[in-house]
Amino acid sequence: GQQLNQSPQSMFIQEGEDVSMNCTSSSIFNTWLWYKQDPGEGPVLLIALYKAGELTSNGRLTAQFGITRKDSFLNISASIPSDVGIYFCAGQKWNNNDMRFGAGTRLTVKP
Amino acid sequence: GAVVSQHPSWVICKSGTSVKIECRSLDFQATTMFWYRQFPKQSLMLMATSNEGSKATYEQGVEKDKFLINHASLTLSTLTVTSAHPEDSSFYICSVQLAGASETQYFGPGTRLLVL
């Protein structure tokens, strides 16, 4: 199935800086989700978006569901060392159960 | 969210043997579970959708006779890698889907398989 285009592939930032990553697709999704995966662990859900244009926050994380339903972004403000990990976007459609994942953004935070 | 466990968390086996991985939904009855595979530094790739009481639906390119899935109850799905080979070494992750409007998936901690 189609994959999502996620960028950037990796980021190296200083503690305290803000982070932004995004996902785009050539097709429409009805749900966008953002997950974080630590090494050797399964992905953990950060934010779920269900409506076009929706802007949702979870602590220092903010994500938006694009108006066209073909994109989403995730922002992390005031990064801290424990933000290190791989962030995946995922898109889901109503007509099937499975999700499609982006390739991931590997975040490194320097203390 | 749902709590999902997997067992074992890691396994090393000889080439040609079969390995069974369990996925349990601890606090939620899941009619649908999913199995993913993740190679190093790559994203998750859906292998199959596991439906309680019926045959699993496999993604294109995934051999159903090699990756046997059994979803015998609302809280347990198993993935058996039959006649494992080194190229089957990977990180296998299951997820459960919450019924309802959100249909959000929650993932297990994963099982790392190394085939020697």
Keywords for this structure?
heterodimer; A: 111 residues; mainly beta; six-stranded mixed beta sheet; five-stranded antiparallel beta sheet; B: 116 residues; seven-stranded mixed beta sheet; four-stranded antiparallel beta sheet; 11 strands
Write the layout of secondary structure elements.
The complex is a heterodimer of chains A (111) and B (116).
Chain A: E1 5-7, E2 10-14, E3 19-24, E4 31-37, E5 44-49, E6 55-58, E7 61-65, E8 71-76, E9 85-92, E10 99-101, E11 105-110
Parallel strand pairs in A: 2-11
Antiparallel strand pairs in A: 1-3, 3-8, 4-5, 4-9, 6-7, 7-8, 9-10, 9-11
Chain B: E1 4-7, E2 10-13, E3 19-25, E4 32-38, E5 45-51, E6 57-58, E7 67-73, E8 76-81, E9 90-97, E10 105-107, E11 111-115
What does this structure look like?
The complex is a heterodimer of chains A (111) and B (116). Chain A has 111 residues and is mostly beta strands. Chain A has strands at 5-7, 10-14, 19-24, 31-37, 44-49, 55-58, 61-65, 71-76, 85-92, 99-101, 105-110. In chain A, strands 2, 4, 5, 9, 10 and 11 form a 6-stranded mixed sheet that branches. Chain A is globular, with a radius of gyration of 13 Å. The N and C termini of chain A lie far apart (39 Å). Chain B is mostly beta strands and 116 residues long. Helix content of chain B is 0%, strand content 52%. Chain B has no helices and 11 strands. Chain B has strands at residues 4-7, 10-13, 19-25, 32-38, 45-51, 57-58, 67-73, 76-81, 90-97, 105-107, 111-115. In chain B, strands 2, 4, 5, 6, 9, 10 and 11 form a 7-stranded mixed sheet that branches. Chain B has a 4-stranded antiparallel sheet with strand order 1-3-8-7, with no helix packed on it. The mean pLDDT of chain B is 91. Classes of the chains: A mainly beta (111), B mainly beta (116).
